[in-house]
Amino acid sequence: MNRANDGTGGTVGTGGARGGANLLALRSHNTALVLDLLRAAGPEGVSRLELAERTGLTPQAVSKITARLRADGLAAAAGQRASTGGKPRTLLRLVPEAGHAIGAHLDRDELRTVLVDLVGTVVGERRAPLDLGAGADAVVAEVAREAETLAAEVPGSGRGAGPLGVGLFGVGVALPGPLDHTRGVLHRVTGFPEWDGFALRDALAGRLGVPVVVDKDTNAAALGLAVGGERGSFAYLHLGTGLGAGLVLGGSVHRGARTGAGEFGHQVIQLDGPPCTCGARGCVEALCLAAVARGDLAGAARVLGVAAANLAALLDIDQVLLGGRTVAAHPGAFVEGVAAVLRARAHREGDHDPAVPVRVAPGGLRAVAEGAAQLLLGPVFGRGDR
Amino acid sequence: MNRANDGTGGTVGTGGARGGANLLALRSHNTALVLDLLRAAGPEGVSRLELAERTGLTPQAVSKITARLRADGLAAAAGQRASTGGKPRTLLRLVPEAGHAIGAHLDRDELRTVLVDLVGTVVGERRAPLDLGAGADAVVAEVAREAETLAAEVPGSGRGAGPLGVGLFGVGVALPGPLDHTRGVLHRVTGFPEWDGFALRDALAGRLGVPVVVDKDTNAAALGLAVGGERGSFAYLHLGTGLGAGLVLGGSVHRGARTGAGEFGHQVIQLDGPPCTCGARGCVEALCLAAVARGDLAGAARVLGVAAANLAALLDIDQVLLGGRTVAAHPGAFVEGVAAVLRARAHREGDHDPAVPVRVAPGGLRAVAEGAAQLLLGPVFGRGDR
DNA sequence: GCACTTTGGCAACACCGTTGCCAAAGTGGA
DNA sequence: TCCACTTTGGCAACGGTGTTGCCAAAGTGC
């Protein structure tokens, strides 16, 4: 009967101004909070009282919210906890099949698409070669074809399916390069000027008949990690054919006003250093990739570490996560090299704070595609834009 | 009768978890939104319908909220707009005398305190020499004395005055160096080890009997600028005896989990560059101050510009604001030097985006003290932590 | 003087989380 | 086996939010 999320996201107030909130927005907010905790709890489930404690809501409010979710088929009972002297707590879990989303990762030469259920589990995956030079129409057609093939696996789905509770939420598309996340328009695709200003979101949405969201690959990966359980604030550093970053501050992806945030590769860390393809001198990307090219992994990691330490100090983040093909090829060398720089910086500046931890981002080469799917699922759990 | 803000700030849910919202939180949120627009409108005022349009609330909701504010004495009628064929719109404005806050700026050798009214106008100011070496008790006593002298100017105020509608909201204290904003504890005061771990907030609050908030000088200045009308996201770069930054992202100050964000002076921009006092090499602060010391203002500005361009690219901010004694001494040279680097970077990376604008921050040497007062006033207008 | 437009308050309403209450479902001791 | 006790969680009533429908008030313009 009830809708857990009607898609309006509360009162509108379009534009830059902060918006007023009404009762509908209040309900969506609290419902999203509960859904987020249900998802985080996994198949074991959580009790109502635990949800109440962790949201700050009263137990009765949680009961009302979870009753709606159960009526909508989004949540279900999952056994009960051991008694502590009274009636045992009933555990609730999210129903994974209650919704799905598709994530598409347009890499330089490969298209990777995944079908993800409501809890974020990948339940379908496809890979296909990609040729951006074939033109926008051909690429859009190819992405649509792959998405439709995957979508056919969703029970009761198909084009035009409802937004929630059954079928497909939509398709998230992640790709490198500057673009406008809010409008879904590409600014520039390096090496393929015919893509400049292409309205990818509308083209794909018009063809598929489901919502489409477009974002930078690094932002998608960062969102996927944030939804996947990484807490607090962190930076996802992606080292592949280029170098970029996705920033998560306070649990939300920071994109900046023009989706330009995370421009990490062209951070200058060597005044008057070697020239970069961007025109500047001493960019991390140029220094790092040059070191990789000559086989100097320690040098590449050190350079990356210096830039990561700059970022960590500037934003006071909780951890640094590394990903991308180049990192995947030599994970140990990069993690240790970057961590060494962060340790040195922390010890020099004061004894109070421990060094920012560095890890390889979970998810591997599928992280971007999974994150792309979270562009649609995230808002359901309150992980939308900010 | 009614309280526009009861200080609880909605449901608690202390800790890192995102909190649930109840009706009280909803009301505070919308009330803060309306208050913020009233403050931004200035003495001319705004009409109810304009408030409704800009918040996304219905006119009737705005009427209810403004009726409460008028009953509380926070808002009042301010004439009416010209008719457009019907009943003319009644204009509403904030009552400046409805509340005050004190801001204290503990600089290296000077204590500057300001008394600010509800709309942010400075209505009192004091300056006194400061000697951090005199010990915590002496400094706390001195700050308390200055604050009490200023507070005496508030009609109907005094110690223990109510939090809203009459008297003093509290005292905001801004000072350099690492500290814990949430607990009001100093970590380290460069050159004065006896201050390590001093609970400044509690010491001062206990003595004055009003709420006290402590923050870094750069964060306070950035908050003051954000409340003072600077829109969107920006960085405030403070170049005085040291170099630091305050970051405003999406209208709110970004402090990071440990109030460490804005560590800008020790961004490394020259690998294996000259050693810095922090132990690292090639920090902007060392490079920039060395250039200033040898009279090379263009060089100092260029170095600052490189670091500013890194920051602007990483966070996709809307503008860069410069402040601090060194900038105040040579504003033209720094603004132009930094702007030149940002222009060059923008043109190299693409033709779409114009360069990030650079300006001298308004407020001058009083900006930090004014911002410190906003540490108390800001939350009333929804500009609290995030 | 009258028709019309526009503002903004009053009253009724739907619905949010909250509170008070109590049935259901367990434990543990007699 | 019974009973006192603890704990869970649903039902009902409640206060208070923004919303809707309605209309008096206050202007303009013919």
Automatic annotation (TrEMBL), chains A, B:
Q: Name one Pfam family in it.
A: ROK
Q: Which InterPro entries match?
A: ATPase_NBD, ROK, ROK_cs, WH-like_DNA-bd_sf, WH_DNA-bd_sf
> Mind telling me which Gene3D superfamilies this protein's record contains?
3.30.420.40, Winged helix-like DNA-binding domain superfamily/Winged helix DNA-binding domain
Membership in a protein family: Belongs to the ROK (NagC/XylR) family.
From the Swiss-Prot or TrEMBL record, give the protein name: Transcriptional regulator
User: Where does this protein come from, organism-wise?
Assistant: Streptomyces fumanus
